[in-house]
């Protein structure tokens, strides 16, 4: 227990003494240390805008404008060459780069749509090592099919478009479905023994 020193007439604890000061009007309730004082001050956002020069997980894609903490920008993005501060000059460059990215994306989609129409006639032939029973030692995966299919139709083809449940492990003809933006097509895969 805290005993007040000085007058000797009262033995107040520090809690009672502070309460008494407020009730007697000596200390205003709007002192800088009260919550009411801070309620009217806006919270300062100290984030900064950066342009991403490559894809950064959980932040954004290449040429996106991201708002990040200054420490993250300095210590991670700028140090690794993944980002750049937005200024008046870079803002114009950002607009040009995003426009360029959109044009490239639309061109890729157009090529992919054309390739998807050619897909019905596409035949992918693969030669693999087999055992005596005709089983492949290593199955043909979606990734291998996507690479060979890209060569056959003349466009970049991603493995995620190919709907193959498990790798092909038998020699012979196989019909494999592919889906792109709701459109479905099938192509033929011929696996031959070496």
UniProtKB/TrEMBL annotation:
One of its GO terms (molecular function) is structural constituent of ribosome. One of its GO terms (cellular component) is ribonucleoprotein complex. Residues 48-93 form the Ribosomal protein L9 domain. The keyword NAD does not apply. GO terms for biological process: translation. Belongs to the bacterial ribosomal protein bL9 family. HAMAP family: Ribosomal_bL9. Binds to the 23S rRNA. This is Large ribosomal subunit protein bL9. The gene is rplI.
